[in-house]
């Protein structure tokens, strides 16, 4: 199968957003009047970002999901994306699974594949996504203000729990492993929530590297500090709710520093609590208030009594 046959067979579908569809030198995109284009790119490399054993369908899903997570965090509506693929060989079964998972998520978000590049090489997937957001209203990392509440969407830590199980460092009951694996392999980008938070949240980021690490980006860009209530951790790890018994410190590490969650961390004034809850309800996504933004710099993790925890989350080396 040649390069052009491969593209025609697996990736070329009718496109409404670009008048040319796939196949010309460039795709042409037109954001609606009053909207800004929001552009983001993420690369996935075998061994680094995914296990070589992953079902190609879920790899296709996740490749786009991690890219739609960023427009979600900006409050943008995804419009289109490009796909650059390096493939060791044109494996028909792999391509069928990968394109199926990829395009199913694309369809679910009304986000169209408008172009890309295909080459032979070690398996590597790069996607660039284009979204639109009302001009000047995108959610940024820089908008957090002292006194704001700190919120997260969904649950945290289960993707990392599954990874640790895959690595054989932790053993899980089958049902919990299956559920955690879905979180790891099939993240759902919080695109609807992000859009619902425009005009409500003051800042947002998507959690890819772990809550505390990504929150640090908001703090740095906004010139503020934060206090995080670690007592929220057990209620944020879905596996704990499902009956998994784990050491408290491990639960905190998974939730606060686990990574690969693709949930949103965001801030909003206390006066917007009802509006945040309404945005969560509208998007069908749980939102949990986990702390507050402080005027002074630094990130404090507090226990239920409000005392700072000594636990060091920076390295998250519990399993190493
Ligand atoms: P160029 O010579 O301009 O780089 P290519 O020959 O690489 O173009 O690609 C031909 C067309 O197919 C272009 O419109 C390109 O956007 C599209 N394309 C290539 N690879 C992919 C892919 N993996 N997914 C979607 N479209 C692709
Ligand atoms: Mg090319």
From TrEMBL:
Source organism per UniProt: Ramlibacter terrae
Recorded GO MF terms: thiamine-phosphate kinase activity
Function: Catalyzes the ATP-dependent phosphorylation of thiamine-monophosphate (TMP) to form thiamine-pyrophosphate (TPP), the active form of vitamin B1.
Keyword ATP-binding among UniProt keywords: yes
Protein keywords: ATP-binding, Kinase, Magnesium, Metal-binding, Nucleotide-binding, Thiamine biosynthesis, Transferase
Binding site for Mg(2+) 5: 209
Amino acids binding substrate: 49, 260, 316
Pfam families per record: AIRS, AIRS_C
NCBIfam families with a match to the protein in the record: thiL
Other noteworthy facts: Reaction mechanism of ThiL seems to utilize a direct, inline transfer of the gamma-phosphate of ATP to TMP rather than a phosphorylated enzyme intermediate.
SUPFAM superfamilies assigned: PurM C-terminal domain-like, PurM N-terminal domain-like
Domain PurM-like N-terminal per the UniProt entry, residue ranges: 23-133
UniProt-annotated binding residues for Mg(2+) 4: 25, 40, 70
Recorded family membership: Belongs to the thiamine-monophosphate kinase family.
Domain PurM-like C-terminal residue range list: 146-301
Residues that coordinate or bind ATP: 116-117, 141, 208
Positions with a binding annotation for Mg(2+) 2: 42, 70
HAMAP family with a match to the protein in the record: TMP_kinase
Pathway stated in the Swiss-Prot or TrEMBL entry: Cofactor biosynthesis; thiamine diphosphate biosynthesis; thiamine diphosphate from thiamine phosphate: step 1/1
Protein name in the entry: Thiamine-monophosphate kinase
